[in-house]
Amino acid sequence: MAAEADGPLKRVLVPLLLPEKCYDQIFVQWDLLHVPCLKILLSKGLGLGIVAGSLLVKLPQVFKILRAKSAEGLSLQSVMLELVALTGTMVYSITNIFPFSSWGEALFLMLQTVTICFLVLHYRGQTAKGVTFLVCYALVLLVLLSPLTPLSVVTLLQASNVPAVVGGRLLQAATNYRNGHTGQLSAVTVFLLFGGSLARIFTSVQETGDPLMAGTFVVSSLCNGLIASQLIYYWNVKAPIKKKKQ
């Protein structure tokens, strides 16, 4: 029995998905309805699933921009504010040594959002400005993650996530409304972000117990839901094709 308890299943699950005491509770004592341990398993599983999914979540948006050679319909200010929110979550989580499964998607979403920012600038004919933005952002990120930045500043950055998320999504919603269509906005990306933010409410409460993190994801879910509803509303509306000047 001891050999079975220390078998390959345990090496896979502990500590990635379960603490050792929960593994023993479920798989040694066969207490399959132990609610606290099941909540940990669900939270860890969801968290890792979200992190894995985040590797691809914004790629449809990136590819849609590249395929169209246009970023029409995307609000640069909205994307920038989303980047601020992702950066705040990532820096705050690293500083507080939260489990990677509770925030890891912020890292991958940040990289993809930076790419989208550059592409928006590039297809607006501002490539040099885009390169400057990449360099400046990298420098700011290094400073935020360094010991030079006090914890109070990091906490303030995380607290600013709520207005950043709200402002960014409202800007995108306003752009959609003004245009009467969603342009090059990717439905796959929007719906994945909406689902991910909903799941993150549970995982942030379970894994971090941080009300600031949980509150951010509640607001994010509401705002992502707004954009998702616009995508559905404008589903059959296509962006007008701009005629090239003679």
What brief labels describe this structure?
246 residues, 12 helices
**Helix and strand string, N-terminal first?**
HHHHHHHHHHHH
- The parts where pLDDT drops under 50 for at least 5 residues are none
Q: How many domain modules?
A: 1
Instruction: Output mean pLDDT.
Output: 86
Structural class: mainly alpha
Largest sheet at a glance?
none
Helix coverage percent of residues? Answer: over 70%
Strand content: under 5%
Number of strands: 0
The number of helical runs is 12
- Rg on CA atoms, Å: 21 Å
Distance between the first and last residues' Cα: 80 Å
Overall shape: globular
Q: What's the assembly state of these chains?
A: single chain
What does this protein look like?
This protein is mainly alpha-helical. The protein has one domain. It has twelve helices and no strands. The protein has helices at residues 2-5, 8-13, 20-28, 35-54, 59-68, 76-95, 104-122, 127-145, 151-159, 161-179, 187-207, 211-233. It is globular and about 65 Å long. The model has no long low-confidence stretch (mean pLDDT 86).
